[in-house]
Design goal:
Distance between the termini: 40 Å
Radius of gyration: 23 Å
Bound molecules: zinc ion
Shape: globular
Number of domains: 2
Strand content: 15-25%
Number of helices: 14
Length: about 500
């Protein structure tokens, strides 16, 4: 059997000031060593990795499939993708697929929230292009991120779409294995999938989409119970991605059965209603920084303040200074911020050398939405020029964020990196040799639930603090949605939903 594999993985935030270009795929990989590769190179890069592609390659060896590697493109969440970059990925995939025809199937790793300038549903477009080439009878199966904005076009073009079951996303590889096995069953003719998508008028912030807590925990439990029915192949709950300004952005559920359309509809209706009924649980209050500082002072010890509005893994620039400025203004003199992307300051620090002094502004240079550049005079504590880990639960995952300098501005420790770093899943202070015992406050960017997993009981407590930016958990502060279907909870009042 000959099976084509490929990856197109990006979470596009429409509120970013800059589009995502090829150079970002080339320089900021997330799960693979190289986020931009075509043909045979894909196999060399993905083989043995704990990724969806790695799982496909392993399953191919097990089943004796001959693989046709198409292309792999992935990078950190950032702005909408430039049309030319997407055209290169799409044509890179389709040309190789065309040349390899006939194939017995296609296995893909997609995100589900990739937007291209002028093309809102890029995964729907890519899947439809692949379907046109391989025809209706050839199985096309893909794994999607839990934060996918699932469209009907995507569902119609694929035989089976499978979402992650976890957030933090710790089951990526396992979903790849599962997708490959379901694909094998479809290819053998053992099952003929039928899917039903339900899409309540909901756009949810990511702040409480952790699957270990409610409301996602309840939703996933119910999904697994539904999957106990042997007629149900898969129930995927998608929290959606709030940063993509497109009509279909938001939460959904996809139910796939082995050919029973009525059952798929019944289960999807029930799951959609449950998602709708639990909607208020996704809304999470933020604490003003001054109140958080006062409470931390009273309690004593180290406190972690979570800045989700500048979540680098939600498309934030990772250079926001809003919380740091408020912390300093509240009188904190011993703190650390993790971390600020500032290539200018990194260059200055490397010029000054370890122990040298730098003067200038740090952070806030990408756009005007995450706090202004902060004037500092700081000592260079240390310099580093090697990759850092990406997730504490997977030591094989590394991220190259360019050179890193740790600055000390009168007790405020500021690690700065050349490229944006996604650090919510690691204790980057430990990685950089910074002793947290001496600090009163650390400011961490990203999702609180993931951060808590990485830091455990090291801080005395965690507070999700008020901030500003393009991942603000109060979606009314994100900016203006222009294309999203309305009305939509929680942006509008009196939104109604009745599952059909
Ligand atoms: Zn995700």
């Amino acid at each position: 059997m000959r099976v084509a594999i490929g990856e197109f993985h990006h979470e596009s935030n429409s509120f970013c000031s800059e589009p995502t270009r090829v150079v970002q795929f080339e320089t900021a990989p997330v799960y693979l060593d190289r986020g931009w590769c075509f043909g045979e190179e894909l196999l060399a890069v993905a083989r043995g990795t704990h990724t969806v592609l790695g799982a496909y390659i392993e399953k191919a060896a097990e089943h004796g499939w001959e693989l046709v590697p198409l292309a792999a493109a992935e990078t950190m969440p950032s702005g909408e993708i430039e049309a030319a970059a997407y055209a290169e990925v799409k044509e890179g995939m389709l040309a190789r697929l065309r040349a390899a025809l006939p194939v017995d199937g296609v296995l893909l790793d997609l995100h589900g929230a990739a937007m291209v300038e002028g093309l809102d549903d890029s995964e729907g477009d890519l899947l439809a292009g692949i379907r046109r080439l391989v025809g209706a009878a050839t199985p096309v199966v893909a794994v999607l991120d839990l934060h996918a904005n699932l469209t009907q076009e995507m569902v119609d073009a694929a035989d089976l779409l499978l979402g992650y079951d976890t957030e933090p996303h710790t089951d990526i590889y396992e979903r790849g294995l599962e997708a490959a096995e379901l694909f094998a069953a479809i290819a053998r003719g053992d099952v003929t999938p039928t899917a039903c998508r339900v899409h309540p008028p909901l756009i949810l912030p990511a702040i409480n989409t952790c699957t270990e807590r409610d409301p996602m925990r309840t939703l996933m439990q119910r999904a697994f119970e539904c999957e106990d029915d042997p007629r149900v192949l898969d129930v995927s709950v998608f929290a959606g991605f709030y940063g993509s300004d497109q009509a279909d952005a938001g939460a959904s559920v996809l139910v796939t059965t082995g050919g029973d359309a009525d059952l798929a509809k019944v289960v999807a209706g029930e799951m959609g209603q449950l998602l709708w009924d639990l909607r208020e649980g996704f809304i999470w209050p933020l604490t003003p920084v001054a109140d958080a500082v006062a409470a931390a002072r009273q309690a004593g010890g180290l406190w972690a303040f979570i800045d989700e509005a500048d979540d680098p893994l939600g498309g934030g620039p990772g250079d926001g200074t809003a919380v740091l400025r408020d912390v300093i203004e509240a009188g904190v003199t011993s703190a650390g911020v993790c971390m600020l992307c500032d290539p200018e300051m990194v260059e200055a620090a490397f010029r000054a050398g370890s122990g040298g002094v730098v003067e200038g502004t740090v952070g806030g240079k990408t756009d005007g939405r995450h706090g202004a550049p902060l004037p500092i005079r700081a000592r260079v504590v240390s310099l580093r020029d090697e990759a850092i880990p990406f997730a504490c639960w997977d030591p094989t995952l590394m991220q190259d964020v360019g050179r890193i300098a740790v600055l000390d501005a009168d007790g405020i420790l500021i690690p700065v990196s050349e490229l944006k770093a996604g650090t919510e899943a690691i204790n980057v202070f430990e990685v950089l040799g910074i002793d947290l015992a001496k600090l009163d406050v650390i400011i961490l960017k990203g999702l609180g639930n993931t951060i808590k997993r990485a830091y455990g009981d090291i801080p005395r407590g965690y507070v999700e603090v008020e901030s500003q930016g393009i991942n603000h958990p109060d979606l009314r502060k994100m900016g203006e949605y222009r294309k999203l279907r309305r009305p939509c909870f929680p942006l509008d009042d009196d939104v109604e939903f009745g599952a059909q």
